[in-house]
């Protein structure tokens, strides 16, 4: 007769509540770790998928993600002329809010250097790549636009011709891809009121700075993306750009480093610290649950000893219940995670390695807690039944 | 007469409390033979429970020894946890409180004692059912202890103590929590167990109304035996064929 199961059957609602409680703790832990992974993944998404070896940005700046950057829109010609450069693309990205059917939406407008770049490095979930130099857009599903929708941006209407999934910027805003010329126009053309507001904010010192553009000056772009010849020496190309004096150059690794260790540093540490707190809470709560469960049964355990039960029976009862709570809680937590997290506004990455680690941690916690309970249970003397 | 089932010799038990020593038991010698129902009476604090703990191998004596079926099993300093296997076969316990496992049904509580002794689940269950039916608890087999009355719980506890067919049964005030009618029923059950199973049954009791059932009654005071009474005209209730053979 399996005592662990009989006990659970006897107090089924309580057991289920316990498992649910442990499960929700695990859900929270999965969410915390996944939020961290999601933020890092989202941040690096464009840098990793756009496929540039070097980013040529404004001199003295580490743009365009960690800091602002604006370079003349003709910078690409200069870069293209350098030895070792296979191809160049212009890049611009800025946040924009707009109304569609009365809904206030937000997107990160990203310029594609059409016709060289029609967006083929994107993975479309629906529709097609850009096929015209103007007024077409590829939107990420998270923005809330559908295929064929028309959006008014700047002074023009854009038709959504393609959809992507999970393409977002550092802040989690969905990307809206248009040709770079359109993007520059959208950035430039603002309402009179916007211009006034921007001036007021800048304290009136904006006359020269081109206050009527959200990319700091007219006809400026954020960066030039460089693909190198296979044989080219990255350092030589970088040195050549730096020699101009008006531009800085960053590698893909530099961009990673800037985003993770500069721009997102505080957020990352914050989330990690929170995750640690949560894991500690989880460890304490789970071990307390399992330990108390054993302590509550000390009288019965003494009785078992009195009628001559071997230690193995007592150990099995405690260990099996701990295992059931651990495995049940983890399973429940995982199911809830899978059901709930896809509806969260930001990406929660459930990495198999992380889950395996979490499971190991939970198993360890249950193991240690039940071991403590077992040690206590084996110390109980049979005659304690009488007290 | 064959050798005694329980032979306690010169059992002494001292408890140190603060700087004084309490002599809970002070050189008690007592035998119980198969088929005998032995009573222990005496005022509170006279050492009755202490005697049962020592006879039941739950506490070692400070001096003296305990022999069960000719085997010396306990003496000062004995490691009693090692005697758990021995206890399982040799001794059945019944206390004032039934101490049933709350999450098991009445039937499971009894069957557990058998399963602990390596009887397979099915025959254990069948025997537990038989036993409970014979104790008039056939309708309670699938109920948890909380649904049973005090007397019913106590009878389940007795069934559990009997399950492994131990030669020695020790009971500490088993009827104290019961009304006089049910108390009498339980005591008669012990009488039958002694008669039918030829077990030695030692019962500590405060209840003077059932003393007619006992073969011998020892009176304890201050940790010693101060009186022994043999009742020649003990009442033998009809054995109801209550005790099926253990698998
Ligand atoms: N663990 C212990 N530590 C100290 N003293 C104890 C302990 N157990 C029993 N005693 C003392 O030993 C004496 C005998 O106790 P015991 O429980 O055997 O009495 P009893 O005859 O069973 O009494 P009652 O009828 O009240 O159950 C008492 O004075 C008691 O206080
Ligand atoms: Mg007592």
Overview of the molecule:
The complex is a heterodimer of chains A (387) and B (247). Chain A has 387 residues and is of the alpha+beta class. Chain A has a domain at 3-43 and 266-386. Chain A has 11 helices and 13 strands. Chain A has helices spanning 3-10, 12-50, 75-80, 180-188, 192-202, 234-244, 252-263, 265-296, 298-306, 311-340, 352-379; strands at 54-58, 71-72, 85-91, 93-100, 103-112, 124-127, 136-140, 150-153, 156-164, 175-179, 220-221, 223-228, 247-251. In chain A, helix 2 packs antiparallel against helix 8, helix 2 packs across helix 10 (311-340) and helix 8 (265-296) runs antiparallel to helix 10. Chain A is elongated. Residues 206-217 of chain A have low confidence and may be disordered. By secondary structure, chain B is of the alpha/beta class. Chain B has a single domain (30-60, 75-230), classed as P-loop containing nucleotide triphosphate hydrolases (Rossmann fold). Chain B has helices spanning 48-55, 84-90, 106-116, 121-134, 150-163, 180-197; strands at residues 6-17, 20-32, 37-41, 63-68, 71-74, 91-94, 168-172, 200-204, 216-221, 224-230. In chain B, strand 1 and strand 2 form a beta hairpin. Chain B starts with 5 loop residues before the first strand and ends in a 17-residue tail after the last strand. The A-B interface holds A 1, 3, 6-7, 9-11, 299-300, 303-310, 313, 381-383, 385-386 and B 49, 53, 58-59, 84-85, 87-89, 93, 95, 99, 101-104, 108, 111-113, 115-117, 121, 144, 160, 164, 172. The structure holds adenosine-5'-triphosphate and magnesium ion. Magnesium ion binds next to helix 1 of chain B.
């Amino acid at each position: 007769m399996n005592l662990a199961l009989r006990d659970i059957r006897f107090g089924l609602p309580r057991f289920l509540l316990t498992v649910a409680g442990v499960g929700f703790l695990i859900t929270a832990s999965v969410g915390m770790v996944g939020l961290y992974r999601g933020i890092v993944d989202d941040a690096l998404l464009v840098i990793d998928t756009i496929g540039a070896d070097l980013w040529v940005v404004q001199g003295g700046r580490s743009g365009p993600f960690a800091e602002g950057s604006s370079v003349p829109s003709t910078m690409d010609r200069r870069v293209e002329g350098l030895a070792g450069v296979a191809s160049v693309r212009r890049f611009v990205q800025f946040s924009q809010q707009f109304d569609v059917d009365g809904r206030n939406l937000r997107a990160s407008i990203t310029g594609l250097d059409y016709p060289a770049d029609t967006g083929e490095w994107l993975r479309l979930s629906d529709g097609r790549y850009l096929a015209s130099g103007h007024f077409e857009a590829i939107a990420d599903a998270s923005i809330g636009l559908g295929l064929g929708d028309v959006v008014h941006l700047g002074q023009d209407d854009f038709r959504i011709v393609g959809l992507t999934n999970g393409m977002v910027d550092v802040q989690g805003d969905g990307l809206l891809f248009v040709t770079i010329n359109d993007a520059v126009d959208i950035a430039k053309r603002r309402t009179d009121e916007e211009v006034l507001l921007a001036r007021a904010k800048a304290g009136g010192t904006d006359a020269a700075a081109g206050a009527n553009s959200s990319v700091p000056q007219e006809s400026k772009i954020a960066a030039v993306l460089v693909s190198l010849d296979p044989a080219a020496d990255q350092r030589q190309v970088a040195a050549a750009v730096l020699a101009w004096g008006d531009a800085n150059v960053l590698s893909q690794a530099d961009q990673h480093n800037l985003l993770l260790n500069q721009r997102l540093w505080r957020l990352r540490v914050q989330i990690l610290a929170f995750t640690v707190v949560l894991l500690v809470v989880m460890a304490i709560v789970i071990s307390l649950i399992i330990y108390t469960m054993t302590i509550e049964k000390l009288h019965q355990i003494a009785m078992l000893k009195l009628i001559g039960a071997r230690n193995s029976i007592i150990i099995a009862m405690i260990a099996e219940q701990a295992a059931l709570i651990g495995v049940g809680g983890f399973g429940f937590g995982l199911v809830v995670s899978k059901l709930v997290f896809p509806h969260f506004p930001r990406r929660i990455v459930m990495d198999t390695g992380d889950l395996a680690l979490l499971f190991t941690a939970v198993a360890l916690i249950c193991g240690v807690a039940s071991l403590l309970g077992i040690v206590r249970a084996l110390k109980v003397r049979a005659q304690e039944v009488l007290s | 007469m064959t050798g005694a089932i329980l032979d306690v010799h010169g059992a002494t038990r001292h408890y140190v409390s603060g700087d004084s020593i309490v002599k809970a038991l002070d050189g008690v010698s007592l035998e119980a033979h198969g088929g005998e129902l032995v009573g222990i009476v005496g005022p509170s604090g006279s050492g009755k429970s202490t005697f049962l703990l020592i006879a039941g191998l739950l506490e070692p004596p400070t001096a003296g020894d305990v022999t069960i079926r000719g085997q010396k099993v306990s003496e000062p300093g004995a490691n009693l946890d090692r005697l758990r296997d021995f206890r399982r076969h040799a001794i059945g316990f019944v206390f004032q409180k039934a101490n049933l496992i709350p999450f098991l049904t009445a039937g499971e509580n009894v069957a557990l004692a058998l399963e602990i002794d390596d009887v397979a689940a099915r025959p254990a269950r069948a025997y537990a059912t038989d036993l409970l039916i014979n104790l008039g608890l056939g309708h309670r087999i699938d109920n948890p202890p909380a649904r049973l009355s005090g007397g019913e719980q106590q009878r389940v506890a007795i069934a559990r103590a009997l399950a492994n067919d131990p030669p020695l049964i020790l009971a500490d005030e088993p009827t104290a929590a019961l009304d006089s009618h049910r108390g009498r029923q339980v005591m008669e059950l012990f009488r039958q167990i002694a008669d039918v199973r030829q077990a030695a049954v030692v019962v500590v009791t405060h209840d003077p109304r059932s003393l007619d059932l006992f073969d011998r009654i020892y009176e304890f005071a201050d940790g010693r035996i101060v009186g022994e009474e043999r009742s020649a005209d003990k009442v033998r209730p009809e054995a109801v064929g209550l005790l099926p053979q253990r698998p």
